[in-house]
Design goal:
Length: about 300
């Protein structure tokens, strides 16, 4: 079966024409905020690809709230705010968290009155101690390495309108879950949930994580490019680890740089690449939109699911 059957495909110029840049002028403060996130981010991508996507999301969000109000009126129930949840999927190191932060900044720009929160499912990985106990250290990121019940309960509580919901957090430099630093999510209007596993089907649970999503994005690129981005990120992790003995990568940063990169290349080949091929890529055609990247993270094609 043609996996693109249900998608409209657009090149950048066509996609941009749906919402020309002049409609939202980014201030210097906006640009500074984006550049502080990552100074390599292309502002052309932001204006030509992300702003039309944000406009589409704004329309979907408004529709969603209207539908919800009509339903509550029909059921003679009082209306309450129900968070709109956006999932962002894709390989390790494809740029999910960078895209998620961009969406958060731009959604806030277009709808300044809304509270937009962002979490990553990395926090729902079992802690390293538990992964070791289960013999799963080399399976980090694979479906069995996540506490899916905890993630589903978290999403359920957010959707149910709980005043405060705790999300565990993860640090790449500690290489573990930060059990003492949970993130507190307080009644968001929009919640972005970013992670490699957000479009996966559960093995035991009766619910999918994506059952909670109102819109989903898959960030896509050729595996060879993603490996390069993985290694570039590893280089940045090494640079920051250099003077910090508590950093997971400290000993690699102190030792031979070539050997450190050989180790990272091996981890990519043994763990993250098979995970991409076996468990992440097969979820691509569940997304509402696929952002396809080429060299230098430039988005060259956009696939939008047909209704
Ligand atoms: N749009 C972008 N432009 C330039 N570099 C980017 C962009 N998106 C991601 N990167 C870089 O690629 C690497 C992986 O991105 P990251 O957001 O950490 O990926 P993920 O969350 O998917 O693991 C990081 O070094 C990040 O700085
Ligand atoms: C924590 C992760 C599963 C998730 O990755 P992310 O999407 O945040 O890049 C990944 O970064 C990871 O640690 N994978 C295990 C093998 C490795 O060290 O790359």
């Amino acid at each position: 079966m043609n996996e693109w059957l249900n998608y409209d495909q657009f090149d950048r110029a066509t996609w941009h024409s749906f919402f020309p840049s002049e409609r939202v002028l980014l201030s210097q403060a906006n640009l500074d905020e984006i550049k502080s996130l990552n100074d390599q981010i292309s502002i052309a991508d932001v204006q030509e690809v992300y702003l039309p996507l944000i406009k589409l999301l704004q329309l979907q969000y408004q529709n969603y709230q209207q539908m919800h109000l009509q339903k509550m009126t029909f059921l003679k129930k009082s209306n309450r705010r129900v968070p709109y949840i956006i999932g962002i999927a894709g390989s390790v190191a494809v740029g999910k968290s960078t895209s998620a932060r961009l969406l958060q900044i731009l959604l806030h720009k277009l709808m300044p009155d809304l509270r937009v929160e962002l979490i990553t499912t990395d926090g729902f990985l079992y802690p390293n101690a538990e992964l070791k106990k289960r013999g799963l250290m080399d399976r980090k990121g694979f479906p069995e390495s996540y506490d899916m019940d905890k993630l589903l309960a978290f999403l359920n509580d957010v959707k149910a309108g709980e005043a405060e919901v705790m999300a565990p957090t993860y640090s790449h430099s500690v290489y573990d879950v930060l059990l003492d630093q949970p993130q507190i999510i307080k009644e968001p209007d929009i919640l972005i949930v970013e992670g490699i596993n957000v479009l996966q089907l559960p093995s035991k649970q009766p619910l999918f994580v994506s059952d909670f999503f109102d819109f989903s994005v898959y960030v896509d690129a050729d595996a060879k490019l993603i490996e390069q981005w993985y290694l570039e990120r590893f280089g940045l992790l090494l640079d920051t680890a250099f003077q910090d003995p508590s950093n997971y990568y400290y000993s690699y940063a102190q030792g031979d740089r070539q050997a450190a990169f050989d180790m990272a290349r091996d981890v990519w080949q043994r763990i993250d690449l098979p995970n991409l091929n076996e468990y992440i890529l097969p979820t691509r055609n569940r997304a509402d939109i696929i952002l396809h990247k080429t060299t230098n993270h430039k988005i060259d094609r956009i696939y939008l699911r047909e209704d």
